[in-house]
Amino acid sequence: MSGLHAFPLPPRRVFLRRLARTGLLAGLIIAGSLGLGVLGYHHLGRLPWIDSLLNASMILGGMGPVDALTTPAAKLFASAYALFSGVVLLASVAVMITPIVHRFLHRYHLDLDDQGRDD
């Protein structure tokens, strides 16, 4: 036996604990990204805190900005934050599905080591 076949499938409680841990990590990534956006919109965009939260939430959620930005610094920040938000979305989804994919591969004994390689 090699690779994924060497160990039995962990119990459901271990899987659920892993799901909770990765969900918490994804939540922390999103919360940190939201905080970064709020600070940027507040300081560079000169928006009130609540409007900064709204704009950062809308960008991070993929909906688009609410308020028009007038300074070049604010526009550059908004552009960078929008691109950053797309990466954060992908990273958060990847973090959250990792235990699911791992369990699937483990459960169905898909040993991918050295298969189809022409090394």
Shape: elongated
Q: Mean pLDDT, rounded to whole units?
A: 88
What structural category do the secondary elements indicate? mainly alpha
Low-confidence stretches: none
Distance between the termini: 22 Å
Helix content: 55-70%
Number of helices: 3
Radius of gyration: 20 Å
For the secondary structure, the number of strands is 0
Largest sheet: none
Approximately what portion of the residues adopt beta-strand conformation? Answer: under 5%
Could you spell the SSE succession in H and E letters?
HHH
Describe the structure.
The chain is built from three helices and no strands. The chain has a domain at 33-107. It is elongated, with a radius of gyration of 20 Å. The chain starts with 11 loop residues before the first helix and ends in a 12-residue tail after the last helix. With 119 residues, it is mainly alpha-helical. 67% of the residues lie in helices and 0% in strands. Helix 1 (12-43) crosses helix 2. The protein has helices at residues 12-43, 49-60, 72-107.
